[in-house]
Amino acid sequence: MAELKYWLWLRTLRGLSNSACLDLLAHFGDAEHIYYADAEEYAHVEQLTKKQRSLLENKDTAAAEAILEQCAALGISILTIGDAAYPDRLRAIPDAPCVLYWKGAWPDFDSEAAVAVIGTRKATPYGIRMGERLGYTLSKGGAYVVSGLAAGGDAAGHRGALLAGKRTAAVLGGGIDVVYPRENAALYDDIAASGVLISEYPPGTEPKGHHFLERNRIISGLSAAVVVVEAALRSGTLNTVHHALEQSRDVYAVPGPVDAPCSQGCNRLIQEGAGLVSDGWDILRDLQPRFPQRIERYLFDLPPSIGRGAAEKGTAAQQEAPAEDAVPAENEIDKTEEKAYIEIENSRDRFTDDQIQLLLTLSEHPMTVDDLAETAQIPVRRVLSALTDLEIDALVRQVSGNRYILNALIKE
Fold first, then answer.
1. pLDDT in tens, 140-185
2. Looking at the DSSP assignment, which residues form a beta bridge with residue 358?
3. What CATH code is assigned to 109-306?
4. Disulfide-capable partner of 227 in 21, 202, 252, 395 (CB 3.0 to 4.6 Å)?
5. Contact 110/93 with Cβ under 8 angstroms?
6. pTM of the shown model
7. In this structure, what DSSP letter does residue 295 have?
8. What topology does CATH give the domain 2-74?
9. What is residue 221's three-state secondary structure?
10. In which residue ranges of the chain is CATH 3.40.50.450 found?
């Protein structure tokens, strides 16, 4: 604990960048030696400016001690670049973070086939489906999904991993205790419960624009490969790709319609040599020789919304949305397929109360999420969660207009 105080003192000196801290560590070896050095010794670190050297003369550790107390109260752990548990994979990148805060279950990233699943915040329905599909299939095949908990593509990747019953890591753009965006509060809780939340910012730090650009190097740095689900030509998502290439990571992208703005960045990446991805195995196949103990060929049925036809559905989804009163074509609803038969009374152990309520509310007439929430008297967030689980079991199906229909025969 005493040693951590010196690391936090170093990182709380305003005006002293992370890269300057790395220069100091390269010279002195650890934070405690930096703390007890004097002005004459600091002068030997040629990379530092005169102003940065003067900052080091402030030996007040009150801010560091306050952070330690706050972390202890919140159950937040601290990892420094000098710790054995710090991933070698991350330590090797340019400007590796000197200090990381984390909460949850810290994995051995160096032995994990970690894959960053990232995408624009303004994801289309196609992007959401592909993000969930990749998160799901990658996790089922043995990968460890890493992303940034942002709205859109990032959140979809996390959800897919959790739906597969696997862990996932979220690298945040603010303090560990600051949930952002608020709409991902439930996802934040789920990741904290089974995976790990990571940040280089102390508790209480509010997210700022530059934080997200800074954290991108950590997302790619923890990963062996990066896949972009959706990105415009000028997108913050491509900043992570820049770091990935600088770090010699494998880069993949999901193709999309040439006239869809959210796919233009991905299509450009593929033109420039990124691997084309339609399924998690496209990535796992390449990683398997490096992680033979982690990766295995999986055999399972993909849920309809993130299954083999997702790319085709996505093309339509990225076109102009249908009018609110639009009805899916008859042949879309009445496709001939075998449907499951469920007796609700004998299936209460299999489904949650929300899932049962939705199964009883849905029919072959399409309903929007808002319609379902109002009719079933369930909050929208819980409706979305229950629908995703039911889709994985192929009991409901999404049709055009972001509406859902029942894909099973129900007996109460």
1. 999 999 999 999 999 999 999 999 999 999 999 999 999 999 999 9
2. none
3. 3.40.50.450
4. 252
5. no
6. 0.73
7. -
8. DNA polymerase; domain 1 (1.10.150)
9. helix
10. 109-306
